[in-house]
Amino acid sequence: xxxxxxxxxxxxxxxxxxxxxxxxxxxxxxxxxxxxxxxxxxxxxxxxxxxxxxxxxxxxxxxxxxxxxxxxxxxxxxxxxxxxxxxxxxxxxxxxxxxxxxxxxxxxxxxxxxxxxxxxxxxxxxxxxxxxxxxxxxxxxxxxxxxxxxxxxxxxxxxxxxxxxxxxxxxxxxxxxxxxxxxxxxxxxxxxxxxxxxxxxxxxxxxxxxxxxxxxxxxxxxxxxxxxxxxxxxxxxxxxxxxxxxxxxxxxxxxxxxxxxxxxxxxxxxxx
Length: 272
Description:
The protein is an alpha/beta fold. The chain has a single domain (5-265), classed as Nitrilase/N-carbamoyl-D-aminoacid amidohydrolase, CATH 3.60.110. It has helices at 18-34, 53-59, 67-79, 163-171, 185-203, 253-261; strands spanning 5-11, 39-41, 82-91, 97-104, 110-115, 121-123, 129-131, 143-147, 150-154, 174-178, 206-209, 213-215, 221-223, 227-229, 235-238, 244-250. A hairpin with a 5-residue loop joins strand 3 (82-91) and strand 4.
């Protein structure tokens, strides 16, 4: 498909309490809709950022009981736009949770779900250590979903560091990647822009990367700088360090143009 459209990436500073987070995200999404956005992408953990995992497990609910999903479904219906819920923390059976992204159409229907595949288990030095696998059940399926303007490949945050996932999505027909994130300030300053641009360039795809920003309860610090990147690697919009939203006009024909110039998707060779 070649119709142009406007995308928005919403940048939030989510905290420990679900309802205020939902209210803040909805307010920004409504403003983005008034600015003409037809697809609005929200960041990772948009419903809650809680570093105490015992407290977090008390606050989250199974998908069919999740207030965040119902809130955003109603929002999509009210403002008549497609919504990418970067991720909601969802309770699973047993002791684990899911970091789950949802794509909603303009009627509020769930079009696709994606559970984050790659777990952020890292030691960044000092006091910053993360062990997502201790609390989250990873996904095991790459997900493609059809938008009115083309195909979307759905990913989340740490997935960004695994380029083979994006190549598989692009070879499956994706023209756009969603990479909602809560990138740490340390890794964001070093790697965020270059990795987002690399995934776009390697695959001739647009990147929509809404992000968390600022200081969060429990000492977590996120980088912000939500990005919209074109298929030639150009940064079309950067959200900076504060809550808000960015927009850009998206032309799917630019994907065709970039892949015609550098047809890397068709140049695979077997090797040993």
